[in-house]
Write a structure and sequence with these properties.
By secondary structure, the protein is α+β, with helices and mostly antiparallel strands. It contains ten helices and 24 strands. Helix content is about 35%, strand content about 20%. The strands form nine sheets. The chain has a four-stranded antiparallel β-sheet. Helix 2 packs across helix 5. The chain starts with a strand and ends in a 17-residue tail after the last helix.
Length: about 425
């Protein structure tokens, strides 16, 4: 067991100031705490800076493939590893570890930081009554299990195999969803649908639309437009899940992250229709409103809080068509007029019911769903597959890191260069 500082050639904290942001995307990306999660670093949903700012903020060190990033605050204890050569730099409340390759495998370091032993230390160092955070000196003093380097390589190779499959699924999901979005926009935003040559455009409340199409309020295409429970039952150690907006992901509710409520409270909220059904459309209503919009594709044993809006299409619009419509940047821009609140912006539900959308003819909707529905369902299945892979990795991780599963004599292919 050694201090992490003794096995790293470099430990660098972020510049403790706010970087001036670029107004348009550039090649220079800032890693914030929200970009670091579960071993991965999201470099898609980032903020950008100009080249001069990037060079200024990376004077001490620019992150390289194999560097491990830890969040010190908001949230505390998330870990990720740089996997490519994009031009990124550390945002506030993060710290970067560069392994000494003669002593430490970078991926072994990352998985150790994800494990129970080091996470327990990180939580133990956490302080602050309002926002839990970790002091910079403590980031150097974390204790790290350090088996022989060949053993580290083998452990890293085993666990990386799971993450490689998860990353492959992520790439496939991105391609599938981008394809579905492109087809939707071509048909229902740009109006280049099959047979568009035979029709003209007419004026409407939302601008020119094809003849025979309609502009309708959401209330006419949904049997139910509501949100979840406005009263939050107490949390219990063992019970059934209750989801809020923080438990939403791009395609589903993260049931493993939900807090639990009693069976009796759960049943009462089911009676109040706070349980999503298959083909309902769920929308992030509070905070980062419209950050997540998705169709419920599986029966959830979960109830929702009022921070999530629920739309139940009545057949006049296909669930996938409605979700794709609400995901469009133009729709989100118009919905800003239905948002209130300064501290926590939220969609005003009663006004939301009057929000107008373009409703294509039912035949075209069915044709679109035949085209993109299989892609969206496959994306959901891949997402669920990644969830299972992550669970398997997380079950194996502490046993490998602790040495409970001895890999010393196993024949495992490892990369020539650990980083």
């Amino acid at each position: 067991m050694v201090k992490v500082s003794e096995a790293c050639e470099l430990i660098v904290d972020c510049v403790n100031r706010t970087a001036p942001l670029a107004t348009e995307p550039t090649p220079y990306k800032m890693i914030r705490t929200t970009n670091v999660r579960d071993g991965f670093i999201d470099t898609d949903n980032v903020r950008y800076v100009q080249e001069a700012t990037f060079h200024k903020w990376t004077r001490r060190a620019a992150p390289l493939p194999g560097d491990v990033v830890l969040t010190r605050e908001a949230p505390l204890g998330e870990v990720g590893i740089i996997r490519n050569r994009e031009k990124v730099f550390l945002g506030q409340r993060t710290i970067m570890y560069r392994a000494d390759l003669h002593k430490l495998d970078p991926y072994f370091l990352m998985y150790s930081m994800l494990g129970e032993f080091m996470q327990g230390q990180i939580r133990g160092y956490g302080s602050g009554s309002t926002v839990e955070h970790m002091r910079l000196p403590d980031c150097f003093n974390l204790l790290l299990p350090l088996p022989p380097l060949p053993t580290q390589h083998k452990i890293a190779a085993i666990l990386s195999a799971y993450d490689d499959m998860i990353e492959n699924n992520r790439r496939r999901i991105r391609l599938l969803e981008e394809m579905a979005q492109r087809i939707y926009r071509e048909w229902f935003v740009d109006f280049r649908y099959p047979g568009h040559e035979n029709g003209g455009l007419v004026d409407s409340a939302l601008g020119a639309i094809p003849a025979g199409w309609g502009v309708v309020p959401l209330s006419t295409v949904c049997d139910r437009i509501t949100d979840g429970a406005h009263l939050s039952p107490p949390t219990v150690p063992a019970g059934l899940p209750m989801a809020s907006v923080k438990d939403m992901t791009p395609r589903r509710l993260a049931l493993d992250a939900c807090r639990l409520i009693s069976d009796a409270d759960f049943v009462a909220l089911v009676r109040q229709d706070c349980q999503p059904r298959v083909n309902d459309v769920l929308i992030a209503k509070d905070g980062s409103y419209l950050k997540h919009v998705f169709v419920v594709r599986d029966a959830y044993e979960v109830v929702i809080l009022s921070s999530i809006a629920l739309l139940r299409p009545n057949g006049a619009i296909q669930p996938d068509v409605l979700a794709l419509c609400l995901q469009q940047s133009e729709t989100k821009e118009r919905l800003k007029n239905f948002v209130s609140g300064v501290a926590i912006p939220r969609i005003v539900l009663k006004d939301f019911r009057a929000f107008q959308i373009i409703r294509p003819p039912e035949g075209l909707q069915r044709d679109l769903v035949q085209r993109v529905g299989p892609q969206l369902r496959l994306a959901f299945a891949l997402d669920m597959g990644s969830l299972a892979l992550r669970a398997a990795r997380d079950m194996l991780l502490p046993r490998l890191i602790s040495g409970e599963f001895d890999v010393t004599n196993l024949e495992i292919a490892v990369p020539d260069v650990a980083a």
